[in-house]
Structure formats: C-alpha cells, structure tokens
Amino acid sequence: MAYILNIETSTTNCSVSLSNKGETLVLKEDYGNGYSHAEKLHVYIEEVLNEANITASHLDAIAVSKGPGSYTGLRIGVSAAKGLAYALEKPLISVSTLEALAYQIKAESGVIIPMLDARRLEVYSAIFDASYNLVRAIEAQILDESAFKKELVSGKVYFVGDGVEKTEKLINHQNAVFIENKLPSADQMSLLSFEKYKKSDIEDVAYFEPYYLKDFVAIKSKK
Which terminus of the chain is more exposed, N or C, with fewer CB under 10 A? Predict the structure, then answer.
C-alpha cells in the first residue's frame, strides 16, 4: 500500500484527495465558493480519511501543491502539509500546480498550456506537450494578441485554468482550444505524488517553501 494525502489550495478550489498507488480513492473539494481554505481544509482531511476507513497513521506520505498560485492559499496548504508530515514523521512531497492542472487535459497532439490568473493581464503559465513533458518552464507572463504565437502556428494549443477567460479575449486563432471552468485539483496530484514517492523525491520539512514565482505585494487598505 502507498497511501498519500494530497492537498491543493493554490486557487479558490480547496481540494484534498487520498490516493493509493497513484489512484484517487476519495476526493473532497470546494470548487467555486471563494477562499474558504482556513475553514474547510482540515475538515476535508478528516473526511477523506474517515471515508477510506483509515487513520492518519496509515499514511505513507503527505503531498502538497507547491504553486504558483494564491499567496495566502499556498501558505495555508503548505503549513498544513508540513505540520502533518512533521507530526506523523512522514515524507513531504511537493507537486507543481501547473503540471497537475495540465493533467486535466488529454490531447493526442499539440501542446497544453495550464495558466493561473495573476494581476491585470498577467498569468502564470507553463507549456507541456501531449505526453506531459515540460516544453517551457513556468513564467509570469503578460498577455497580448501575439502571446503563444509560435505554439499556435505549430498546431493545437489547449489552454486550461482560471487564466483562460482573459486569454480568450485576446487570442483569436483556429488552433486555440479554451477549456474553461477548470481549477487545479488534488485529484490529478494522486499520480504525480506517487511517481515522486517511488523515487523518494521528497522535501525537507523544515525548509520547504511554496513556489510563489513573484514576491507577495500587500495592498494598502482604502479605509
């Protein structure tokens, strides 16, 4: 057995899955009701363990989505994952948020571009081929009409994530496929965390930090 608890809190989707050998056994998530992670994350963790009829001591590892994404969301998820890993003396595994998001798309050819909304016309994006191999590393990218021109000329481009809405308004190309209403989920983390578990690709619980990509910027209150 290889029970892994997967935690995803990088966007508004508070998502927790319990997996065994890469297969999701139980999934709990709140897909579109705003940032409720502080209230729901630990409830979901308890629920997935109860539904699988196991206790936390049965877990073999804790996995967490490492970003990029919401600063606050990532802090909540990583803090919970580190706390569990330390208390249970289990390995901590980190999974790329954008890689897990790419796995929501099944394509025979072309490229998959998972993207998360950042400020204004900016997105966090990466590019994967149809076999989920990384073609271009994660970037904070300013969108305009010429964005992803090279990829669009070469073949189908599948855009997925909450950055799709503003991308669709700027890019008009026959090879562009926009998949809306998709957010990163702990469901797709199951396979990725298990692959890392098999290779003992783990993090140092004491020093691991989320991948914010950009520094946190506090906005002064208008009050």
Answer: C
